[in-house]
Amino acid sequence: MTDLPLVHIVDDDESVRRSTGFMLKHAGFRVQTYDSGGAFLGHAKDIERGCVLLDIRMPEMDGLEVQKKMMEAGLDLPVIIITGHGDVGVAIKAMRAGALNFIEKPYEKELLLGALVEGFFRLNKQDKLEMQAHEAQARLACLTGRERDVLNGLIEGFPNKTIAYDLGISPRTVEIYRANVMEKLRVRNLAQALRIAFIAENTN
Fold it and tell me: Could you tell me which CATH class the domain 6-129 is placed in?
């Protein structure tokens, strides 16, 4: 798979899809085009991550409805609304619904590229957070049940003696499990261990 960023163009106007796609390919992007919101949403389950250029005025399903369906499908991609002159009010509604930006037809190349740069910056930042969450979950998965019990006690702020009492083991055994938790999570102190636990917890 190429590393070039992907732009999904959703517009019922073939000339717009063709001209915008040509411009973006020459600017170093990959392009996938769709002639309707339904065609785009039909690929929602396996769609490749990228930015979405979404026309606000389309027959059958307009841009606002496409946005709504994207949210329902869990398709969290940066959306840049393409709007005709006089549709600014509708574009603002789209931004309130989560769109990143909007540009008016006919749009300047620099304006479009600037909006896409912002979109891919957000996408990369989001991917980084998701990678951190995945790594946190993978580290926690290495813990045994008893080590996780000890970590849960630490998350609650309990001292070793209280954790030992609750689990029916000695404080010395808690210390051993605690040391194992630190080693498996690859952290140096309790604060770092708790941060990993919280990152993983917030993704569930």
Answer: alpha beta
CA-CA distance, 44 to 68, in Å (whole number)? 13
pLDDT above 70 for 1: no
Q: Exposed/middle/buried for 32, CB within 10 Å: 0-12, 13-18, 19+?
A: middle
Same fold, 6-129 and 142-201: no
Secondary-structure class of domain 142-201 per CATH: mainly alpha
Which of 58, 102, 106, 57 lies closest to 80, judged by CA? 102
The pLDDT tens digits for 51-74 are: 999 999 898 899 999 999 988 887
Residue linked to tokens 């979404």:
54
pTM over 0.85: no
User: How far from each other are the two terminal CA atoms of the chain, in whole angstroms?
Assistant: 30
More confident site: 75 or 29? 29
- Which residue type does 168 have? G
Q: Which structure tokens are listed for 194?
A: 């708790």
